[in-house]
Amino acid sequence: MRWFLFNSKKTTQLAALFLWKSGGNFTMPYIKLMKMLYFTEKEGLLRYGYSITGDEIFSMPHGPVLSHTYNMITDGSNDSVWNDWISGEDDYCVALKPKGITVNNYEDKFDLLSKAEVLLVDEIYNKYKHLTKWQIRDITHDPKVCPEWHDPHGSSKPITIDDIFLSNHRTQEEANSVKKRISENDSYSRLTKDLI
User: Fold this and answer.
1) Which residue, 18, 105, 140, 127, is CA-closest to 69?
2) What's the rounded Cα separation, in Å, for the pair 87 and 177?
3) Which tens digit of pLDDT belongs to each residue from 150-194?
4) Angstrom distances, CA of residue 164 to CA of 25, 44, 91, 120, 132
5) Residue 5: pLDDT band by 50, 70, 90 thresholds?
């Protein structure tokens, strides 16, 4: 059973915030961005009990990834919001398109993200910003950092909420509670999607 309802607009703002924080030309290797997004999603589930992106999670040879986000980054996106914010660059990088974001208006620009989510992005970015794309990839293979990841041997394998919770010293009851909350939220989103 699929638990998530992917939120491409919120995921785009999450990715864009990481790119904006990187400064300079607001460019980042996409594998590094993918790992930062994964850590943010994982912490959202463990700390707050909900999925920030609504994306499905898979073990892949280079570590855990958010499935729909990975496809948007690597295959090019048909999503107009993603294309409005983010462009592909040479050498397997992505870049934030000019949006006039400043320290005075960034909360307005990233309006789909809660303050807790923005603080979580700050935390994840500051923790991993010094790592190269290969270093951050390598730590996702470390069972002390990502015990939920298992080598799919050239393929891909789903990472479930149970996998994340139980491998990170949480209980089945906690996992079940989060799955129930996500299912209820997704059902509500599906019902109201066409009313807005």
Assistant:
1) 18
2) 37
3) 999 999 999 999 999 999 999 999 999 999 988 887 665 555 455
4) 34, 11, 32, 18, 25
5) confident
Tell me the pTM: 0.91
Contact between residue 49 and residue 181 where contact means Cβ atoms under 8 Å apart: yes
Pair 61, 154: CB distance under 8 Å = yes
pLDDT tens column, 66-113: 999 998 888 766 778 898 999 987 789 999 998 888 888 988 899 999
Contact 152/59 with Cβ under 8 angstroms?
A: yes
The two tokens of residue 162 are 């149970």
97 close to 86: Cβ distance less than 8 angstroms: yes
User: Residue ranges per domain, the chain?
Assistant: 8-190
DSSP-based three-state secondary structure for 119: helix
* Separation between Cα atoms, residue 36 and residue 158, nearest integer Å: 19
